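Look at one record.

>
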Amino acid sequence: MRFLRGPAPARMFAAVAGGVLLYAASPPRAWWWLAPVAFTLLTLAVHGRRARHGFGLGTVFGLAYLLPLLGWLYEFLGAEFGVWPWVGVVALESVFFGLAGAGMARVARLPGAPVWMAAVVVAAEAARSRVPFGGFPWGRVAFTQADGLFLPLAALGGAVLVASPWCSPAVRSRRC
């Protein structure tokens, strides 16, 4: 995908599209196969960028994923609380995706980059599941595999094995 070498709008589009695809892969839809595509887009977006750019792209990916995924918070809390609790949780949780994007950008040039990138995603998910106040693990990558081909991997190794194969064909080819 040569278009991701250049301008920031193409990378931003890839990050947003990846987040939307990860949302589409989440239950109750059985489109589990979109999750690898989502992480491939994120990988293509952050590859070759500095960590701060990776942070921004990861945060945008997280916002595109979590805003629709956590929409139930607003509906549950109602007009009494307004949109602020929903927006606050989404913003806080998106920072973890930003940290993952920054980490992915940093390790993208290392030997064995796909393994390191998968480890960064798994570490960010682990942190998101524990911080703050015991974490908020809603929307983990493994949850997209309820009906998927990777379900046996989730049963064996949880989020580690589910996220690992996806981070990414783009880096393996070194053409991004």
Summary: Residues 66 and 116 are 24 Å apart (CA to CA). Helices lie at 8-25, 34-46, 51-69, 71-77, 84-107, 113-128, 151-163, 169-173. Residues 170-176 have pLDDT under 50 and may be disordered. The chain has one domain: 2-173.
